[in-house]
Amino acid sequence: MSCCLVAAPCPAHSHYEVCADTCAGTCASFIAPLMCPESCFEGCQCDDGFVSDGVQCVPLENCGCVHNGQYLTVGQAVVDTDCKSKCLCQASGMVKCEKLSCASEEVCGLRDGVRGCHVKQAHCGICPRGRLTSFDGASGAIGAQGAFEAASLCDEAADRWFRVVVDVRVCSEGASPSVAAVYVFFNETGITVNSKHETWINGRKISLPSKEKGEISVHIAEKTVIIERASAVRVTYSASQQVTIIIDESLSGKMCGACGNYNNNSRDDLKTADGKITTDVSVVVASWSAGDFSRW
Fold it and tell me: Where in the cell is it found (predicted)?
């Protein structure tokens, strides 16, 4: 009995070779001199007139660029560390740079792995050991258990209204409070995520990722469930039971809930739902108890 080895199909603009040239026939070898080994390997080699850009075989004129030691594909742009310039890779290895400045409502930094000018954001966090940090930086122990309104848009009639309810429980005697479930509401869409990261939308259990009504999406990355609507609102719920609510600066001063009003003043964050000043975060949380949810 004998068997034959069948070559795996090669991608577009390439073909199988017993001794493939995988070094000299690359974009990198044309942009900068390379020391290629004399040995070769069985595999796919780009057709005549094409070279590998590291992902696929492209015409030589479509090769990317090397900028500050980094290889860029055609159309890829990079921003320097202080967002003062943006450089774009053009065809034939040309790099075009232009001055850049962030607008007053933007901040320079990394977001989702991309450096650039991004809309300013505020974060409210509910930590695994039962502490809450408001949008403006006030923090303290949650204390009570049950469901509470962490954040919502005060104007319930607004088209972009949303509400985040966090259910905190003490699972065993002497343990710290931890998040048992997160509920996020966007007008006609209600999303529930429990501590096992099982997810329901409008009462229907779903598999992730899921996209609802265009702008609303739910997905999981690095053991964290991420619920977001466009770029203005993002709620994350990690495997360690950390909940983070992220909102854009456009919502400053328009927020209600235990996370505060996001007016860049932490001094007024320790205020109960009926407007009374306190020094205890747990009192604030208790005042924002979600009446439409069971306390026990």
Answer: Secreted
Identify the domain boundary among 54, 77, 106.
106
Q: Which residues of the chain fall short of a pLDDT of 70?
A: 1-8, 31-34, 174, 231, 294-296
Q: What is the SS3 assignment for 70?
A: strand
User: What is the four-CA torsion angle of 256, 262, 266, 269, rounded to 10 degrees?
Assistant: 0
The pTM of this model reads 0.70
CA distances to 18, 25, 27, 76, 153 from 50, rounded to whole Å, are: 19, 8, 9, 20, 54
* d(C-alpha 184, C-alpha 80), whole Å: 36
Does 174 share its domain with 259? yes
What CATH number did the domain enclosing 30 receive?
A: 2.10.25.10
Residue 293 lies in a domain: no
Evaluate whether 90 touches 74 at the Cβ level (below 8 Å). yes
- For the chain, the C-alpha Rg in angstroms (whole number) is 26
**H-helix or E-strand containing 165?**
strand 163-169
For residue 209, cis peptide bond before it (omega within 30 degrees of 0): yes
